[in-house]
Amino acid sequence: MKKLLHLLPAAFLAGLFFAATAAPLAAADLGPPEIGWEMASPDLVRFHLHFSNPDPFEATLPVSGEMHSQQFGAFLPNYGLIGTFDIPPIEPESFFDVYFEVPLSNLPPSPGPTSALGSAQAPLAVCPPPIWVGNVDVTWGGPGGAGHVNYHFGNVGVCPGGAASCVHVITGCGGNLTWAINNPCPPGWTVTLENEDHTAAPAVLPPNWTGWICVSASANIPIGAQCCFSVDFWCAGVKATVNVCAFACPCDVGVEQNSWGRVKNIYR
Which residues have CB under 8 Å from 42's CB, separation 6+? Predict the structure, then answer.
């Protein structure tokens, strides 16, 4: 594992649960980081934490923290340590980036392949983009304050005009859960939450529920279009947001069931 401290573009910020203690009045508050990751190579994931200080006058005070991996889902325990970090004082209107490069073998398995649509299909390019599908848990504390962030992300490829594609999701809530889909995508995209047997999920989910987040696209959705949405889960008044990006992929004639989703029909 390798920690890199240098400037690169931030990835994305979504679905953050944040609880912070106030920093001393003489310094600016250190807010939650932007979190993202990408494949540095087929077997290596590069994680990115982007801490910023938007205050025009005051610097932040230092903090230290750690980042853990989790399986894809909500309210799940930590799987393993990704790395630890030290954030020095950040000057006004400046930032500090932390990078970790982690072998895929050190992370919990993704809930299925994310770089192909099945052996019976022939995508014209890698679709969806290869990515590790999972969660990260970030905590930090020190003179600059304390905080906690969870980020959950996965992706899925969809054949426009074909059956829904699904990504498996698990939850670790000991009580009942409620949920809601936040779908800002344009007309033609459909997102559903389904039980293991692909029946519609009830409004109140049982403890430790597992199932599928499924996405379909109508035939008029152009190849290359992207639909990013989220599913909120509530457990004992605490919200966890699972983020998914769906990609309209070029597909050939055959579509098969595989381990990451349900794609069964023939696509013309």
Answer: 130
At 252 the pLDDT is 66
Query: Torsion over CA of 107, 108, 114 and 118, rounded to 10 degrees?
Result: 130
Q: What number of helices (H) and strands (E) belong to the chain?
A: 0, 16
CA–CA separation, 42 and 238 (whole Å): 35
Structure tokens at 94: 């400046």
Contact residues for 25 (Cβ-Cβ < 8 A; gap 6+): none
Please choose, from the candidates 85, 20, 24, the residue with its C-alpha nearest in 3D space to the C-alpha of residue 60. Answer: 24
Strands 189-195 and 165-171: unpaired
List, for residues 231-242, the tens digit of each pLDDT value: 999 999 999 999
Dist. CA 28–CA 52, nearest whole Å: 11
| pLDDT for residue 17 is more than 50 | no
Rounded Cα distance between 205 and 173, Å, is 10
In angstroms, the CA 102 to CA 2 distance is 7
**C-alpha distances in angstroms, 199 versus 154, 212, 213, 217, 226?**
21, 10, 12, 19, 25
| Confidence at residue 117, expressed as pLDDT on a 0 to 100 scale | 43
**Mean pLDDT computed over 114-134:** 62
Residues in the chain: 268
> Of 172, 247, 254, whose CA–CA distance to 208 is shortest?
172
